[in-house]
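Weekly modeling sync, notes
Attendees: AB, CL, MP (scribe)

Item 1: holo prediction request
CL wants a bound-state model with D-ribose before deciding which constructs to order. AB pointed out that an apo prediction alone won't tell us much about the pocket. Agreed to run with the ligand included and paste results into these notes for async review.

Input as submitted:
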Amino acid sequence: MTIAIGSDHNGVALKEALLQGVLKGLDVRDFGVFSSESVDYPDVAFAVARAVASGEYERGILICGTGIGMAIAANKVKGIRAAPCSDVYSAKMSRRDNDANVLCLGGRVVGPGLAAEIVTVWLNEPFAGGRHARRLEKIRTQEESCHDE
Ligand code: RB5
């Protein structure tokens, strides 16, 4: 699986912890940032979200202070289903029911241990399909009409 990861200044420490830990050895491209200098999270969110939406990467992981800004921004990119998750159950269900292709974490919300558990579950849980695919199709249809407006 190919993974695109990115963070703002509030997520850079957690990003490093994941890259040195649970993501080590996986096919991951780091879209930055690489320092704690203040940046605008939408810039990183759009870069990672576009890389996933284009099919260049299968999954994305975005980290800011809360995970919320990254999710709001990433979900503006057509084809992205970004889920902010602070617990293992939500991460699992975001894959099973929602086929989330971007996971958003809060560097000020979850510690590195919990974040590693969340990422592991999220990378491994399959999409259930069935009725959930029908529901996602409805979201896709709405997304198409937004982009036509
Ligand atoms: C700082 O820009 C902060 O708002 C950001 O890290 C994130 O928490 C946004 O949701």
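Recorded for review: Residues 131-148 form the longest helix (18 residues).
Action items: CL to compare against the apo run; MP to circulate these notes.
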